[in-house]
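Per your request, structure below.
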């Protein structure tokens, strides 16, 4: 199990990303629009820098939904390899068969 504080911090980041997504998208569109004057684009960049750092989507870490493990994460299932193996051995994931040769 991951530390509860790490998991909660990541959940807080996800909430911030959702809350500021529209504002961040609009500011980025303004800042990257080359048809606008340089001052407008610069002001948009300054406003973008004033937003919380944790509202950026790149700050969110993929974590296992069961254990909170940050590494070896399978996006398709939303769990780590350790949890996948454990659930597979118990027969709780349909279609997953343990390999042997």
């Amino acid at each position: 199990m991951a530390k509860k504080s790490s998991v909660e911090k990541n959940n807080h980041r996800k909430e911030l990303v959702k809350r500021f997504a529209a504002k961040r998208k609009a500011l980025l569109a303004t800042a990257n629009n080359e048809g606008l004057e340089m001052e407008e684009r610069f002001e948009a960049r300054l406003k973008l820098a004033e937003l919380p750092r944790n509202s950026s989507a790149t700050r969110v870490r993929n974590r296992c939904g069961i254990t909170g493990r940050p590494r070896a994460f399978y996006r398709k299932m939303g769990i780590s390899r350790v949890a996948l193996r454990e659930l597979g051995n118990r027969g709780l994931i349909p279609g997953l068969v343990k390999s042997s040769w």
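The chain has three helices and two strands.

Regards,
D.
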